[in-house]
Amino acid sequence: LGVSSAEVEAMTAAASRPVWQHWLAADWSEFPPSDEKEVWIWGYTDRLSYLPGEEVNLHVNTSEKSYSLSVVREGGDGQEIVYEQKGLPGKRHATPRKASAVGCGWPVAHVVKIPAAWRTGGYVVLFTVYSEEDQ
Fold first, then answer.
1. Are the beta carbons of 114 and 100 closer than 8 angstroms?
2. What is the pTM of this model?
3. Can you tell me the distance from the alpha carbon of 29 to that of 27, in angstroms, rounded to the nearest whole number?
């Protein structure tokens, strides 16, 4: 399951904008869809900024049993995939009605430790999920 490095690179290369801007064009809302047949994934980090050696706690909510993630560094010299994990266990979680004010409260689903080799810059976590029919 998931998307390969080549697929992520092809997707971002085909677009005329950085990975982080793809969500701007998406049709999203504050809550997961109520239709049980829809395939979706949502995620967030525990903080906005990290130093080398620190851990990024990823909180994930998805309609599917597994998902993949890529961490992409975006900078003046282009985009670089610096971390990938595939086949991570997915799970649905309730989303509070006031999530925008009080947070989602989802448990930590995956932890990424920031290596010393990661350069200063902007990083985007890209979550990918497919339905069982689309494997």
1. no
2. 0.76
3. 7
